[in-house]
């Protein structure tokens, strides 16, 4: 009788690519190496890479400071120009106001002259006096000022000489009579004062100068001789 060979279970074939995939330990080590490499700083292998970055930051900071200084200078210049503009506008406004008031008051000067003559002759009475005083008050509020007095030195910038004479009692050209008073608004002269002037007598001035020289000479002689002789 034929003896049968005992049977055995066949094992499945191991996949041929097992060797190429590697063992689980090898896979874990590779993942850990990759993680370590990814977490390392980018420039760790270059010790001098930080210095160029600092230089670039300093350069950018200098540029920002330069731009800030330029903008600050522009702002200061604009502020100064604005202040000058405001002062110029204010000055022009005052000038325009003075010119407008001067043009108006110039038309009233003949009336003011009539009021002055009426006052000098004692004719400023009754209702006419009230009207005249109200007018003078109104023009004074507008800044009108009267000037010109007898005895003051002649000034060609504010006086207009209509008459000329010589007088022995004056030492310089003097206003001896006010024919028409002058008027001004602030520093602006609307009309110069029309006056009669007198100058010193030519001979009187020369004689006076000679007398002063003689007096000085006599004084010097007395001082040199030790004083005047006693009788």
TrEMBL record:
PROSITE patterns membership: GRPE
Compositionally biased residues, Basic and acidic residues: 210-222
Localization: Cytoplasm
Taxonomy, superkingdom: Bacteria
Gene3D superfamilies named in the record: 3.90.20.20, Head domain of nucleotide exchange factor GrpE
InterPro entries: GrpE, GrpE_CC, GrpE_head
Coiled coil stretches, renumbered: 61-95
First-listed, main subcellular location of the protein, grouped into a coarse class: cytoplasm
Region described as Disordered: 1-53, 194-231
Keyword vocabulary terms for this entry: Chaperone, Coiled coil, Cytoplasm, Stress response
UniProt family annotation: Belongs to the GrpE family.
Subunit structure: Homodimer.
Function: Participates actively in the response to hyperosmotic and heat shock by preventing the aggregation of stress-denatured proteins, in association with DnaK and GrpE. It is the nucleotide exchange factor for DnaK and may function as a thermosensor. Unfolded proteins bind initially to DnaJ; upon interaction with the DnaJ-bound protein, DnaK hydrolyzes its bound ATP, resulting in the formation of a stable complex. GrpE releases ADP from DnaK; ATP binding to DnaK triggers the release of the substrate protein, thus completing the reaction cycle.
Protein name per its UniProtKB record: Protein GrpE
Species in which this protein is naturally found: Streptomyces halobius
